[in-house]
Amino acid sequence: MRHLMSPLDFTVEELDYLLDLANDIEKYPEKYKRACEGKKLATLFYEPSTRTRLSFEAAMMNLGGNVLGFSSAASSSASKGESVSDTIRMISCYADICAMRHPKEGAPVVAASKSSIPVINAGDGGHQHPTQTITDLLTIRSLKGRLSGLTIGLCGDLKFGRTVHSLINALVRYEDITFVLISPEELKIPDYIREDVLIQNNIKFKEVERLEEVMPELDLLYMTRVQRERFFNEEDYVRLKDRYILDAKKMELAREDMLVLHPLPRVNEISVEVDNDTRAAYFRQVQYGVYARMALILILLEISVDA
Amino acid sequence: MRHLMSPLDFTVEELDYLLDLANDIEKYPEKYKRACEGKKLATLFYEPSTRTRLSFEAAMMNLGGNVLGFSSAASSSASKGESVSDTIRMISCYADICAMRHPKEGAPVVAASKSSIPVINAGDGGHQHPTQTITDLLTIRSLKGRLSGLTIGLCGDLKFGRTVHSLINALVRYEDITFVLISPEELKIPDYIREDVLIQNNIKFKEVERLEEVMPELDLLYMTRVQRERFFNEEDYVRLKDRYILDAKKMELAREDMLVLHPLPRVNEISVEVDNDTRAAYFRQVQYGVYARMALILILLEISVDA
Amino acid sequence: MRHLMSPLDFTVEELDYLLDLANDIEKYPEKYKRACEGKKLATLFYEPSTRTRLSFEAAMMNLGGNVLGFSSAASSSASKGESVSDTIRMISCYADICAMRHPKEGAPVVAASKSSIPVINAGDGGHQHPTQTITDLLTIRSLKGRLSGLTIGLCGDLKFGRTVHSLINALVRYEDITFVLISPEELKIPDYIREDVLIQNNIKFKEVERLEEVMPELDLLYMTRVQRERFFNEEDYVRLKDRYILDAKKMELAREDMLVLHPLPRVNEISVEVDNDTRAAYFRQVQYGVYARMALILILLEISVDA
């Protein structure tokens, strides 16, 4: 039995298979609509995340399966002091697979160690959120046609952004990737990414402060939020925040085929005027999230659907 | 693609079609039990409303469809500051139709403008609650056999009662309706209903303070709650509240075929002794609410079921 | 139409039938997977209980049915002051059967009196929790092969423990049962169990303070939590709590075929080192809870499945 704890749990080949399956699901949804009949997904969300929870639920329902679970710790046994280990053993009696979101790093790993059903890490604190990364890879591969030979801009909070770190870790396994890291000085990527991942693997990258100057080079721009609470003082925040807002004017500097991605929810870091730009791919990304999770569920449940 | 924002979105003819369909569903539920197979309804409840939410969920399940969503803002992305526009675009990737309840007037209209799936307004603040109105019309037509030629008593808080305003607006489109408006002075219907709707359309109506005096005239009595917080002072509330409690004694004054309706939940404005009166129709109204929503979902999804 | 309010609602013969059905479900789950197609279970949880709620939901889904409801009073109409009587009449329009958890004793009885669908008491305050008791009986009968001729240890808080009282009441109906009641002085079983149930029925029992001394005699040890707030002073709690923790050392004193049960969730009254002991049956008990509820739903809905 297999779990998904980190995006790197799958080899590049296994990931290729998952992405191929997701694209087949996109193309022939009818083929898969009864694949999980009689199966149940448990969504164990110890902290609310509507987007991720509903994406899993939609995925399971699209496969003909059922869903049960809870959407916040308040409405769960967690409040009675039950351990994650005991909860997962209970859930193993109720469901065939589970997706767990937990505010504490490592909780899904503990769960997986005691579980008799596959556990998917649906986000554990600031640590991992592998289905977001798989969604990002699927979106990029589907819309750009490849995962190699790309110049990828990552913009915003690169210091604390879990999504960005996971994406870098996942993309360095493909050939000829160039990263353009765009952030204020205060929010540059940490050394354990710069040194241990990028430099160690001989990956091309540069770090800049201004989005405008690098727009023309990018095949893809991955936006993230710059949170007010990350700054030491309000002045710095006010001075910097507008620089990292993507608007129509900045989009004029980009290539005609540059894609804009964002893990959502956005607050104001992408102006709504960009939404109608054909290069804005963040809502299509949501749709790919459903296909990616459908493929993942099928793989972990070892269900194959004939052509 | 079509949404439902206000009860007046449908013409009288379209509404007739919907009510006919609802009655067919009531008569032949088996015919419809797979009509929405593979479809998903999203229930986006930014404020709790068990009655309305479960009515929608039961409706979709009766049609063979699935349901996902959230039952309060606390367990949704709303807490992360996401706009309704962005949420609906996400939900458009997860579901085929959605019902939205929101404390702010107009939120469902904003959602509909960005949605790629039909949006049903399931109540927006004190503004509109069209599926309640359609339920009321279905109940009246099913149990009285017609929507014209009726003398309809509306009793309680006629000033702030959203349900009552919507029902008046919907019923003035039928012929020969007489309204008897029963309320304390403080809670009479506002001018924009009295002047702009009733007088403007030459509708017969009268306004009275005492329920007893008009009971014998009524074909139908629509009760609503008189909320304590609507009164300027406690004395007035205490003095008036009992007058608007419907009990067995007041029911003795009514015709044998007079129906009592109430949007529910009631607190104490209808005495429980009335529940066993065959003229009490407020629980049958709940059941009609499910049929009305089933018909609505089918129409908005453009699904037709052969005889 | 029949409800389940107390474990004693069923005669011993009816209970035998239910347990036989549950064992058939365990053995041939495929036979039952469409038994409740088109049926809906409402889970009305006025206080959270993930374990019980999800067990009911899994049970209904395993039977091919659908589930709707709420998981806490906060997200329900209860906050608008609606009575349980009105709520159940609403729910009767939405579902075919319901499971109700309520903090107030007797709430499910009130609901059942007004309901037009079967109501299952899923726990009402410190009063009854009949599906837990049925689960316990099913677990014992399935794993020990009988419900008579057993020496059963009940350990922990025997004064306030609803589960323990219900289990005693249920087991005295079988032949040749011996109870060994293990608790601190402060938490001994109350007189209305000792006098009115045990002595009245000539049941063999003894009351002891130390778990070790009786371990070798037991066919079954039912553990419960000793809650800190039950003690008058902290000293007594600290002094006593460890005595009632089941660990590997104490398990060495037990017979090779002694079973350990626990209604869960546990906090620390069973050491995790016991989990791997083949005699630990508390997680299998969770699984039996699903089968028990499946059988119960079928019986209350009067659905029979051919062989």
TrEMBL record, chains A, B, C:
Which Gene Ontology biological process is one annotated for this entry? Answer: 'de novo' UMP biosynthetic process
What pathway, per the record? Pyrimidine metabolism; UMP biosynthesis via de novo pathway; (S)-dihydroorotate from bicarbonate: step 2/3
Keywords, ordered alphabetically: Pyrimidine biosynthesis, Transferase
Q: Ranges for the Aspartate/ornithine carbamoyltransferase carbamoyl-P binding domain?
A: 2-141
Any Pfam family matching the protein: OTCace_N
Q: Write down the Gene3D superfamilies for this protein, in alphabetical order.
A: Aspartate/ornithine carbamoyltransferase
Query: Which EC numbers does the record give?
Result: 2.1.3.2
Question: What molecular functions are annotated in GO for this chain?
Answer: amino acid binding; aspartate carbamoyltransferase activity
Residues that, per the record, bind carbamoyl phosphate? R51, T52, R101, H129, Q132, L264, P265
SUPFAM superfamilies, sorted: Aspartate/ornithine carbamoyltransferase
Q: Which residues bind L-aspartate?
A: K80, R162, R225
Which residue range or ranges hold the Aspartate/ornithine carbamoyltransferase Asp/Orn-binding domain? 149-299
Q: Which domain of life is it from?
A: Bacteria
Q: What class of enzyme is it?
A: transferase
User: Which reactions fall under this protein's catalytic activity?
Assistant: carbamoyl phosphate + L-aspartate = N-carbamoyl-L-aspartate + phosphate + H(+)
Give the quaternary structure.
Heterododecamer (2C3:3R2) of six catalytic PyrB chains organized as two trimers (C3), and six regulatory PyrI chains organized as three dimers (R2).
The family database entries (PANTHER family) matched by this protein are listed as: ASPARTATE CARBAMOYLTRANSFERASE, ORNITHINE CARBAMOYLTRANSFERASE, MITOCHONDRIAL
- What is its biological role? Catalyzes the condensation of carbamoyl phosphate and aspartate to form carbamoyl aspartate and inorganic phosphate, the committed step in the de novo pyrimidine nucleotide biosynthesis pathway.
**Which HAMAP family does UniProt cross-reference here?**
Asp_carb_tr (MF_00001)
State the family it belongs to: Belongs to the aspartate/ornithine carbamoyltransferase superfamily. ATCase family.
Q: What is this protein called?
A: Aspartate carbamoyltransferase
Species assigned in the record:
Lachnotalea glycerini
Gene name as annotated: pyrB
